[in-house]
Specification:
15 strands, 4-stranded parallel beta sheet, 14 helices
């Protein structure tokens, strides 16, 4: 008797398909009829997840990892349809090849039996292609429908703070609308996002999800056109705080606005000013207890070090129970180490270890880097195809030789441009470090002045107490 596993997946793209229980029932019937033993521990589920990407399916990944175990726990994976296994032909071929060649595991479809031989393999490829084509077409239809709705001002998301939904229409919540007006008014008057969020949270005001207000909450509200009677929808997904995304569709809607256009434009103007000065929504410099707060980060989790009485710095995530490393250190010792590091790096040469990250605006360099990344990915896929037996040794060798030559040529061009950047920027970086040092050691300079001066050149500053190591990466726009 052969051992078998079952994989069950249901998503919104398969509304006409069987339920998970019905799929499992059919799989059990198939296993019993074909003399296969299906154990409960080898029944894997991914419910409500699309089959387009294997990385987003934890149940699928556990199944593949289990199949690779030396104990060889099962000989077959049974699915209701091949589309349950994957709706991406490339991934379907890749994972089936690994299962068959390295794990000796077959993938069997209950509703799509195949005959042995090359003709059966051809039919399987056609089924895989049709499954992917169906998913792509469905995605395009849904996206097209949502795009039309967005252009017509139809609501397609949960209501923003200040509104609720009645009969598919946004309706103002008076108390929340007053908060929205207060946020815009205070921001235009000069209050920082941090101060606004801190005050609202202290008053017990919460978002629709029950969370306290944060800098980013206020930032999102100030950039949400829903409050002037419009709706924004981005076809490519979330805005990720890119409120000026060219792909976003902003259209007139039917709901009542909370603020007027003049107030909106004033808020947008101040947002633009803050963005240019790198003060968008961070804690104001005047509220920092030391200029190192917000600059130095924990080596274990990446969180910033915060003030700890009477005169120490420690990991912010440790204080919140999210990190196991305290990084607790006297602030005067860390300040001395920081200044010493800058003095050392101010005189760096090629033989001294000093990381300077140059923020280049040359599109040619970026284009070469992108070409190199794509080429490396192609070489990796070629290697996997050869290992899986899809590519012959001769074709793999010829293709790899051509790609390697292209890669070597790109590396030469990139190295040449990098040398030009380093030569032209080294003197400028030394000059910037010297200017920052002058501010940091000036007894008359304020905490805000020191913080802003240091942040003008610091890209990343990491502290590792276990090694008493402070490392600094610089940023320099050329």
């Amino acid at each position: 008797m052969k051992l078998a596993a079952a994989y069950i997946r249901v998503s919104t793209e398969d509304q006409m398909d069987l339920s998970p229980d019905s799929q499992l029932e059919k799989i059990r019937e198939y296993a019993a009829k074909n003399d296969m033993l299906l154990l409960d521990q080898y029944i894997f589920h991914d419910d409500g997840i699309s089959g387009r990407s294997a990385e987003k399916r934890p149940g699928f990944q556990r199944m593949i990892a289990t199949a690779k175990e030396p104990a060889h726990p099962f000989d077959s994976i049974i699915v209701w349809k091949f589309s349950r296994f994957a709706r991406n032909q490339e991934e379907s071929i890749f994972y089936k090849s690994i299962l068959r060649s390295k794990c000796n595991v077959d993938v069997v479809s209950v509703s799509e039996p195949l005959i042995a031989g090359h003709f059966g393999s051809l039919i399987e490829r056609i089924i895989e292609w049709m499954d992917e084509f169906y998913s792509v077409r469905l995605s395009e239809e849904v996206k097209r429908s949502m795009t039309v709705n967005a252009k017509n001002g139809v609501l397609q998301s949960t209501p923003s703070f200040g509104y609720c939904v009645e009969n598919h229409q946004l309706v103002i919540i008076p108390d929340e609308a007053d908060i929205i007006r207060e946020i815009f008014s205070r921001f235009i008057s000069g209050d920082a996002m941090f101060a606004i969020a801190k005050d609202l949270s202290a008053r017990g005001i919460r978002t629709h999800r029950g969370n306290p207000f944060e800098n980013r909450t206020v930032d999102y509200i100030l950039n949400n056109p829903v409050y002037i009677g419009k709706l924004r929808w981005t076809p490519t997904g979330r805005t990720r705080r890119n409120f000026k995304n060219e792909d976003s569709i902003i259209s007139e809607a039917q709901h009542e606005p909370i603020i007027d256009l003049q107030t909106w434009n004033a808020a947008q103007a101040r947002c633009s000013e803050l963005k240019k000065s790198y003060k968008r929504y961070g804690k104001p410099s005047t509220e920092r207890k030391h200029w190192l707060c917000g600059i130095v980060r924990c080596s274990a989790c990446g969180a910033t070090l915060i003030w700890s009485n009477p005169a120490f710095l420690k990991c912010n995530n440790y204080a919140r129970g999210r990190c196991s490393t305290t990084q607790h250190i006297r602030v005067d010792l860390l300040e001395e180490a920081f200044i010493d590091r800058l003095r050392h790096d101010m005189t760096f040469s090629e033989s001294v270890s000093c990381t300077a990250q140059i923020v280049s605006r040359q599109p040619q360099t970026q284009s070469l880097q992108q070409k190199r990344s794509r080429l490396v990915s192609r070489m990796e896929r070629l290697r996997e195809s050869y290992l899986d037996g899809i590519e012959s040794l001769e074709s793999y060798r010829d293709a790899k030789q051509k790609m390697q030559q292209q890669l070597d040529d790109l590396d030469v061009q990139i190295a040449s441009m990098n040398r030009q950047d380093e030569t032209s920027s080294a003197d400028l970086l030394r000059s910037c470090i010297a200017s920052v040092l002058k501010t940091l050691i000036d007894p008359t300079a304020t905490t805000a002045q020191k913080y802003e001066s240091a942040m003008s050149i610091i890209d990343r500053c990491i502290f590792d107490k276990s090694q008493m190591l402070l490392s600094i990466s610089y940023k320099l726009t050329v």
